[in-house]
Design goal:
Length: 405
């Protein structure tokens, strides 16, 4: 029998009991749909994290100050101010491959404008900070290096802060009071959205770091520095130069732990996405169990079908059908069940992903790779679990099959 004739016979046999055929395919449909939906959720979370890492800017290196211990508990890097103004100047002058550098002086404060006030984040930075972070100025302009050098009371405010303080009014030129110190708003930042920690990045006021240290915080050291390298290829070299320079400046002996931490954007991205990758694999593996169950269901139904059609098999063998023809017929039936179920499952999985994205605002990303793997896996399930029943049917003795009632 030719393959097309075998296919026709297989489809005709499946059509005789549509309810059983549909229920058999249901396991594959649910399995494939679950795999695609779960992997889409995991990929969406990963892409969201990568987008937030990209919001940090391009080719950036984070330099964090030391780790202070309180009551025997480490408070984490950045908790101890080991980065000084002299460190900032030395890195800026001596490190090769550096485009720009900005310290970060962070604090929280009450900010008032007219009869409006709010508690927000205050960030003391350099004039180049918005370029380092790829954070465009939407209205007005950034403060200048001269403003930083002179410690002028000027500020750039985030989109959320501007809306809460000034509504739809142009904030540029307005006066805001930070801890009762008047600052002139020179610019409004474009929107950045939520950070990886879930905080609103647009709820911020940026001022020159010199103004933040002398007028707002009284700090004499930095918790962190943000450095921008000339290119992605230069990241590791610039990172090593900064580490060696800071060890020399802080007089650290060989074998002594660093009192700072230097991390490239690549390292930050890898660390942030490693968990989401693991979760994606875990979700996909859990969903794949339903594919296995669906495959077992196909095997079970095909074995039942072989038993029910024993006499039919004997008649076909008696009129000239070979054992290989019988095996191919049952194998085609199993593959048809799994492939058809896989196609419907793909549509179901993509539909669920779209529904979650539109109705629940979950980040989802359905890749062609996940669809291809799910489809190939469903076809493999049909072949794997259909082979034994097909082989069993092919090995039936024609005389015994004809006698079967």
């Amino acid at each position: 029998m030719r393959i097309f004739a075998i296919g026709k016979v297989a489809v005709r046999a499946l059509q005789k009991n549509l309810l059983r055929t549909s229920l058999t395919m249901l396991g594959i449909i649910i399995g494939v749909g679950a795999v695609i939906a779960m992997v889409s959720i995991g990929n969406g979370a990963k892409s969201q994290i990568e987008a937030q890492i990209a919001n940090l800017g391009q080719n950036n290196i984070m330099v964090m100050s030391g780790n202070v211990r309180r009551g025997g508990v480490g408070m984490g890097f950045g908790s101890s101010g080991t980065l000084t103004k002299e460190d900032l100047t030395s890195i800026e002058k001596e490190v090769i491959g550096l485009v720009a550098i900005s310290p970060e002086v962070r604090s929280g404060a009450q900010v008032a404008a007219g009869n409006q006030n709010l508690q927000t984040s205050i960030l003391g930075v350099s004039a180049e900070y918005t370029e380092i972070r790829s954070w465009p100025i939407e209205i007005g302009s950034s403060f200048s290096p001269q403003d930083v050098k002179a410690g002028n009371k000027v500020a750039i405010i985030g989109k959320t802060t501007a809306k809460q303080l000034f509504g739809e009014e142009d904030p540029v030129g307005q006066i805001i009071r930070i801890k009762n110190a008047p600052f002139v708003v020179v610019g409004q930042l474009g929107g950045k959205g939520m950070s990886m920690m879930g905080s609103d990045q647009d709820d911020v006021v940026m001022v020159p770091w010199t103004s933040a240290m002398t007028r707002l915080t009284g700090a004499t050291t930095f918790r962190s520095l943000t450095v921008q390298a000339t290119s992605g290829d230069a990241l590791t070299d610039v990172q090593n130069q900064i580490s060696e320079l800071l060890r020399q400046r802080h007089k650290l002996q060989p074998g002594q732990d660093d009192d700072f931490m230097v991390r490239t954007q690549t390292e930050i991205s890898d660390a942030a996405t490693s968990t989401s990758k693991t979760m994606t694999l875990l979700l996909g593996a859990i969903a794949s169990v339903s594919l296995l169950v669906g495959g077992i269901g196909i095997m079970n139904i095909m074995l039942v079908s072989v038993t029910e059609r024993t006499r039919e098999i004997g008649i076909r063998m008696a009129v000239g059908a070979k054992g290989s023809d019988i095996m191919w017929q049952f194998l085609v039936e199993a593959v048809f069940l799994s492939v058809t179920g896989g196609i419907i499952g793909i549509a179901l999985g993509v539909g669920i992903s779209m529904l979650l994205s539109s109705k629940m605002n979950w980040p989802t990303l359905t890749s062609s790779t996940s669809i291809g793997v799910a489809f190939a896996f469903s076809a493999a399930v049909g072949i794997f679990f259909g082979f034994y029943p097909a082989r069993k049917a092919a090995q039936l003795d024609p005389i015994d099959a004809l006698r079967y009632e």
